[in-house]
Amino acid sequence: MDIRIDNQLFEKMKLNLIEQFKIYRFLIKKLRRQLFRQQKAKERDENLRLEEIQRQNDPLYQAWIIHQENIRRQKEIEEEEENQKAQKLRKQHEQMEIQKKEQLRKEMEEKQKELSLSKITAPTHNPFPPIQVTIAPSIERPVCSFYLKTGVCRYNERCHRTHNKPDITNTLLAVNMYSNFEMQYGLDDEYDFDIGLEFEESERYENFKDFYYDVLPEFERFGHVIIFKVCANSEIHLRGNVYIQYETDYQAMQAYKALNTRYYAGRMVQCQFVNIPSWSAAICGKHTDGLFEHGKCPKGRRCNYLHVFRNPPLKSIEKNKDESSRKNKRSKSRDRSNKRKKKSRH
Ligand SMILES: [Zn+2]
Ligand SMILES: [Zn+2]
């Protein structure tokens, strides 16, 4: 009984041992595989390390690295340049904005000045406060020499040079105020030949004298006129221009207020303040102050400097005024429409 039991027990133990042995073998194999993999990984790493060292020492690899570095630097430079460009553009834009604002501000100031000019009715100072005439040249554009000398320029606002408009001066310019037969019908384009000749020199001068004796007293109402010049030029920006220089700015301003936009001989009188630093510089040097000697100036009446009429003697103004008033009285009863010159308020 005991032996049988021992046999069974033995069998059990045997099976148990076999089982344990199998497990042991499995574990051993697993461990070996693990070790093998670790070994392989080590070898691979070592190989990679060696390869890397080899590559580092390879001149081709070195060249490639340098090339890559160069590309990176180039990119950096390009980016920097682009940044600078953008910054420059931004600055330019800002500058333009500032200039625009400045221009707007100036325009506003000018408008306000005009407004205040029309509002002034009586002087608050005696004499009138001097107003600075700005002749400072612009930074960008050179000063227009014609405008500087004559107060006008054939290109007007389109001129590429700077026109420094004065505020208030003692000199008024009545633009295109004088006109005669030739000027009115553009006969002076023919330049002194044929039709021009039909308009006699003396007739021309008589016409001017009428104008002179008629208009000068009008301007004298506001103060003593030092200089009174009438242009005979053909060029439209000078044609029939009348320059009136007073002793003071205040007198000129009073005349401006009273006469600007009034009508004379059916045309609106357009006055502006001008600054004529030197009359001898404004008046054409080649044009003699004689009756009508355009021939002396090679440019004729197309000259850009003033070709002025010779003013008749001052003392005869009173005499002429009396004459014209007598004439007027006589002719008043006659046909009124024959009168060429007519003054009326606008
Ligand atoms: Zn100009
Ligand atoms: Zn000339």
Defining traits:
346 residues; alpha+beta; Alpha-Beta Plaits; three-stranded antiparallel beta sheet; disordered C terminus; binds zinc ion
Q: Can you characterise this structure?
A:
- It is built from 9 helices and 7 strands; from the N terminus they run H-H-H-E-H-H-H-E-E-H-E-E-E-H-H-E.
- The strands form 2 sheets. It has a 4-stranded antiparallel beta sheet with strand order 2-3-1-6, with helices on one face. Strands 5-4-7 form a 3-stranded antiparallel beta sheet, with no helix packed on it.
- By secondary structure, it is of the alpha+beta class.
- The chain is rod-shaped, with a radius of gyration of 51 Å.
- The structure holds zinc ion (2 copies).
- Residues 284, 286-287, 297, 299, 303, 305, 307 line the site of one zinc ion (ZN).
Which molecules are bound in this entry? zinc ion
CATH architecture tag of the largest domain: 2-Layer Sandwich
Residue-averaged pLDDT:
80
User: Would you give the CATH topology of the largest domain?
Assistant: Alpha-Beta Plaits
Number of E-state strands: 7
Poorly predicted regions are 121-125, 190-196, 289-294, 325-346
Strand order of the largest sheet: 2-3-1-6
Question: How many separate domains make up the residues?
Answer: 2
What class, by secondary structure content? Answer: alpha+beta
CA-CA gap between termini:
156 Å
Radius of gyration: 51 Å
Under CATH, the homologous superfamily of the largest domain reads: RRM (RNA recognition motif) domain
Q: What general form does the structure show?
A: rod-shaped
Q: What's the tally of helices? A: 9
SSE succession: HHHEHHHEEHEEEHHE
- The residue fraction in helices comes out at 40-55%
Proportion in β-strands: 5-15%
Top CATH class of the largest domain: Alpha Beta
Largest sheet: 4 strands, antiparallel
